[in-house]
Amino acid sequence: MIYSFQGYIPVVHESSFVHPLAAVTGNVIIGKYCYIGPGAAIRGDWGQIILEDGVNVQENCTVHMFPGKSITLKESAHIGHGAIIHGANIGRNVLVGMNTVIMDDAEIGDESIIGAMAFVKAETKIPKRSLVVGNPAKVIKEVSDEMIAWKTKGTQLYQQLPKDCHDSLREVVPLREVPKDRPGQEAVYKTLREQFKK
Description:
Helix content: 10-25%
Strand content: 25-35%
Shape: globular
Number of helices: 2
Order of helices and strands: EEEEEEEEEEEEEEEEEEEEHH
Structural class: alpha/beta
């Protein structure tokens, strides 16, 4: 669902995909190859929200801010299921873990990884390449080259997903039983632990 608000109409590049069960409102600019999942709410009613190229905002995420603020999710930012970004700027190629909350005027440095369920307080400045966990969130170490390579590969899957959705996602009536010839699905990505298991 795409809504205008006070004359602002969202801008969504044709290569991106906004699920019909997401809500994008007002002064929102979505770049190329972005994926917005079902249940996501991107509310540009009180300020501008920019999603640069290759950003994904997954299911049940909220992106919003206090009046008069504008925020940017930089290129290849990856916002995990259920996360809340409230008035924070997210750096390039950052991973925000599932159910994380990042509060107003926080700045997340490029290539950082914010662990699932972290709480990043307002006005927190996270240096680039930081691994961040906890409530309140704390930097525990620097993100390694291997970790950022793993993150980047996962984000690339989401950058392919808009095309896959445009090509094949259709509303259907469900089947009543599993077909005998139903194909399996390829394992195209591993968890970080599996990736580096010896």
